[in-house]
Amino acid sequence: MSVKVAPSILAADFANLQSEVQMLNQSEADFIHVDIMDGIFVPNISFGIPVVEAIKRHAEKPLDVHLMIQHPDQYLQAFRDAGAQIISVHIEACPHLHRTIQAIHSLGAKAGVAINPHTPVEALSEILKDIDLVCMMSVNPGFGGQKFIENTYHKVRKLKEMILDSGSRAEIEIDGGVNSENASKLIELGADILVAGSFVFKSNKPLKTISELKG
């Protein structure tokens, strides 16, 4: 089974958002990755609920919404209503993570937990069996186009072992700096989903780029 690909709409041309979404509809992409930033949890602001609603109106792929925000619990219902089918929250932003995961599931969405590059995968040990996805940041969150952090390989290997040992069904999603040079190694080590932003949207042939990432 080939790896799943989730192009990050943050890297799209926002003046032509509808056509960018329609391009993804025609592609082999599995999800549309939507990064939500509040300027507090991460040093950047992206977009909010109205833009997610606009994307959903045209999207034929499930929306994979990544909340890089403080106090995500306050917005779970709103993002679910806007069309999110996967909602990932940061472990660093959730003091009551288990309750947050339960809340996401109660809304009928899949629940993911994102971890920053400095956060050890062992921090997930008590929640791993309750989640559908681990969004592993392979760059420091906040800006697109950053260089891939090499220590991610070690973390993917370790996390895959934890998932297998625990009997968890969680998928491993890699977010940041993914390209043709590191994709195959990430897949080999256990990655299930690759998020790619600039690598897809700055490609001269994005449909081909997505297809090649899937292997």
Automatic annotation (TrEMBL):
Pathway: Carbohydrate degradation. Gene3D superfamilies: Aldolase class I. It is an enzyme of class 5 (isomerase). It catalyses: D-ribulose 5-phosphate = D-xylulose 5-phosphate. It holds the Pfam family Ribul_P_3_epim. Keywords: Carbohydrate metabolism, Isomerase, Metal-binding. PROSITE patterns: RIBUL_P_3_EPIMER_1 (PS01085), RIBUL_P_3_EPIMER_2 (PS01086). Its cofactor is a divalent metal cation; Zn(2+); Co(2+); Fe(2+). A divalent metal cation binds at residues 33, 35, 66, 175. Its EC number is 5.1.3.1. Binds 1 divalent metal cation per subunit. The active site is at 35 (proton acceptor), 175 (proton donor). One of its GO terms (molecular function) is D-ribulose-phosphate 3-epimerase activity. The keyword Metal-binding applies. Belongs to the ribulose-phosphate 3-epimerase family. Catalyzes the reversible epimerization of D-ribulose 5-phosphate to D-xylulose 5-phosphate. PANTHER family: RIBULOSE-5-PHOSPHATE-3-EPIMERASE. This is Ribulose-phosphate 3-epimerase. The gene is rpe.
